[in-house]
Amino acid sequence: MKVIVVEDEQSIIDAIKVAFEFRWPEVSLLAAKTGREGIDFVRREHPDIVILDINLPDTSGFDVLKKIRAFSSVPVIILTVRSEDADVLKGLETGADDYITKPFNYLTLLARVKAVLRRTENIPLKSSQETTVSPRLKIDFIDQRVVADNQPVKLTPVEYHLLVLLVKNKDTVVPYQRIMEEIWGTNYRGNTENIRIYVRRLRKKLGDNPPNMILNQHGAGYMFQG
């Protein structure tokens, strides 16, 4: 497995390397100290996951994430000293799969990395490759490809996993708490606003505006309507 860390502080890079070497020695870790270098690494190395600092010397991590999302759906965890809700929400809206605020426990970081990667592995497979979920939506559960209104849709792992969870429970409201536990794990400390951000992104990519596929049951959860 390959991990790219985009971080300008050498002490943090070294600590992350030590944590992986001690707990996850089979991981290959590459470090970039600038946003430009990080984007080049992601494009060239095709990593399994990216750990991205928001405060970089040459550009904002948000801009780096936008550029990565233009060509890749690789899972991204953002690191930031900014704990304000607005910055966290901006990171999620830009396409991050998770976030950790500094200072952080490095074992916690490894646990979050594993949790993000698990979302890409625990996708239910079907006997046939392509399934017509609704008149507007088709999903290839084996290759994890989505087609909406006859157009391919590029989803991040979180967006795809969220869509599959809702589709599996078609015409049934999936409670907020269940969504948080199944997508982010039982120890996730986020709130329903984070779910709303991902649903908003998912609707936009599916062309579900005004919503008629993914519906909100206020105060309860979300439902996929076929």
What is the mean predicted local confidence, pLDDT? Answer: 86
Helix/strand structural class: alpha/beta
Overall form? globular
- Give a short account of the largest sheet: 5 strands, parallel
Kindly, what is the distance between the CA atoms of the first and last residues, rounded to a whole number of angstroms?
Answer: 37 Å
Q: Would you identify the CATH architecture of the largest domain?
A: 3-Layer(aba) Sandwich
For the record, the count of structural domains works out to 2
Strand order of the largest sheet: 2-1-3-4-5
* CATH topology (level 3) name of the largest domain: Rossmann fold
Helix proportion range: 40-55%
Strand content: 15-25%
Poorly predicted runs of 5 or more residues? 123-128
Indicate the CATH class of the largest domain.
Alpha Beta
* Total count of strands: 12
Number of helices: 8
> Mind telling me the C-alpha Rg?
18 Å
Supply the CATH superfamily name of the largest domain. Answer: Response regulator
- What is the string of helix and strand elements? EHEHEHEHEHEEEEHEHHEE
